[in-house]
Write a structure and sequence with these properties.
- Chain A has 268 residues and is of the alpha+beta class.
- Chain A has 5 helices and 8 strands; from the N terminus they run H-H-H-H-H-E-E-E-E-E-E-E-E.
- Chain A has an 8-stranded antiparallel sheet with strand order 5-4-7-8-1-2-3-6, with helices on one face.
- Chain B is an all-alpha fold and 190 residues long.
- Chain B is built from 11 helices and no strands.
- The longest helix of chain B is centred in the first third of the chain and has 23 residues.
- Classes of the chains: A alpha+beta (268), B mainly alpha (190).
- Chains A and B meet through helix 1, helix 3, helix 4 and strand 5 of A and helix 3, helix 4, helix 5, helix 8 and helix 9 of B.
Chain lengths: 268, 190
Amino acid sequence: MVHEEYRDMMTAKALGSLDQGEARLLETHLASCTDCLSIMDELQETATLLAFAATPMEPSPNVRSQILSAIRPESSAAQEKPAKAPVVQMPTRAATSWSAAQRWGAIAAGLVMTALAIALFVLWKQNLDAKRDLASISTQMEEMRQQLARKQEAESILTAPGARIAGLSGTEMAPSAVGTIAFDQTGRAVLMAKSLPPPPSGKAYQLWFISGGQKIPGKVFMTNEKGEGALSDRIPPQALNSSVFAITLEPESGVTQPTGQIYLVSGS
Amino acid sequence: MHPNQAQVSDLDLLNAIKRRDEQALADLYDRYRVILFGLTMRILNSREEAEDVLQEVLLQVWRRAEDFDEQRGRPFTWLVTMTRSRAIDRLRVLGARQRLSESAARETMEETSDAALDAFKSEQREIVKSALAELTEDQRSTLLLAYFEGLTQSEIAAKLGTPLGTVKTRMRSGMIKLREILGERIKTFS
């Protein structure tokens, strides 16, 4: 039997419109009621069709390449097939009665062939290594390019009138972590942080502007394997003159109110 | 849909993605990019944010393909639900700072859409549009405010100055009607 009291909640959930308190209540119910769960799935299917009410649009072509390059490091190791080792066919001829010169010649040719085969193998190996190095260099270059862009942005902010810098220090969650925010009068801001622990799967760091008791959400960012992270954001006008900055660990899509621990915070 | 694309089902693609098949992810993207991007654009009204969310969604598909449960619905439903929810999350983060006032911009966007893209799934779009047209104005606006603006029932009530109970009733009756009109045709959608 379908539980009437959950009908409205299920409809709202399908449309992504359920208030948070009810969401938890419904979740608990659905975990144990298969009848309602199947109604829920049906409602979800109907709600999905509303997507057709949006006008289809073509994303920029670089979105596709960005997606594919983002997944490549994960799958390339599994997919990399070893190239075929070069095989050099040795001449096989029935040995008849050879003259000494012929024999020496054959041996010399054999040696040359063997040397060639070894050289080829070494070259192939080097090529493989070079390819690997190249891939890692291009990743590093991309990272450096982004860092440079960030530094240039920081520089342009710092040379703007009324530019300011705020230092952030690690809390007990990450005592060695440090961060810097540079911002100008228009609210343009760049954050650079380091020595943050790697966020667990599904989590990311989020920036907050705390002003007059209000916690205003900023963007989320990930860290690299060295624990460094950076992001560009805009400080909301109301927080521009009296803001404390904080970094918390949150679900990777970001939240509107902080739910996780504070990792970095600026002096007030 | 292209005949050669139709041969590989969405489910086949998802299974291939689980096996780390990059091409399958590319194919899934090619198959649904215009509808998913249309959805994120409608919600976020910013090309930069909409493309960023689209990218996040596809990476999530790549990482979490095994979370998809065949028993609970079709891959298309899973994909659209995830996209919509990610876009709304982003909207909330952005919106807590500055409410994007976009209804006017959205209208223009509808007008200027590329005719070639309109052909995409145009049959399904027409069916959904005419089904929506059969709802009352109140039902329709309640559904659209929830789905595209991510407003909760209480927020819709506050925005429209309507009692919460009325919003709940409209939402429920609107969905029931939509389901009735679309009925079994839903199964042919994806």
